[in-house]
Structures are given as C-alpha cells and as structure tokens.
Known about the structure:
- The chain is mainly alpha-helical.
- It is built from six helices and two strands, in the order E-E-H-H-H-H-H-H.
- Helices cover about 75% and strands about 5% of the residues.
- Helix 1 packs antiparallel against helix 3 and helix 3 packs across helix 5 (about 80-95).
- The chain is globular.
Amino acid sequence: MKIKNFLTGCFMSKASYRLQTIFQAIEDIEYITTTDELKVTKAIENRLIKPAIRMNIVRIAEQFNKLKDDNAFKILEQFDPDDLRGINAVRNYIAHDYDSTDDHIIEDVIRYNIPVLKKIVLELLIKEKENEL
C-alpha cells in the first residue's frame, strides 16, 4: 500500500513513511535538546520540555511496533534487537509509569540509542531513495 507524503506530495510505501516518521521524531528530540544551548540533562529536567522529549520517544517506539505489525522484517533486521526491545521498554515505562520515569534512562536513550537508530534509519531512507531513481 502506498501513502501520500504530506511534505512532498509523492507516494511512498508504508515502511518508508514509518521510517520518515521515526527520523522526524529523532530530529525533533535533537532540536529540543540543542535549542537555546540547552544540554540534554537540562532539557530532560525542564518541566515544559520533558513531555515533548518523552512523547517523541513514544512516537519512535510506536512506529517500530507498526513496522513489526506490517511484517516489515527486512527493515527491522537492520536494527539491533536489543535496541528495539529497549526503545519499546522505555516506551512502556513512559506510557504506564509516567510520573516516576527515571530521567537518567531517558538521558541514556537520547545520548546512546537515538544516534544509532538515526544512523540506520537514514541509511535505509537513502537506500530506498536511490532505488527509486
């Protein structure tokens, strides 16, 4: 099934749409944590910014779950299974125990997991774009 990209007006696969959504959520987290010279730790502690960061982590995990539901296993194979389980566990932690989610866990996800996921997502999107030409 093809989905129309609201940014470019072009049609794309559901998997590509999900990867672009993941990439956008990662970009949003990076923007939030680097705007106004905020450091990651300070951004996570900020009462106004913290929910936005957490919501984007949830968005990332949800898109990975949808890729699994879509049987996009060739895409999911590109990611370390521990990273996928980890982002899903953090998503569950945020969604079900929001008030007591440990900020150190969120900080580790931003510092260590998000860059790895971003690199792989970007490589997959570039590969798909090259195959379209």
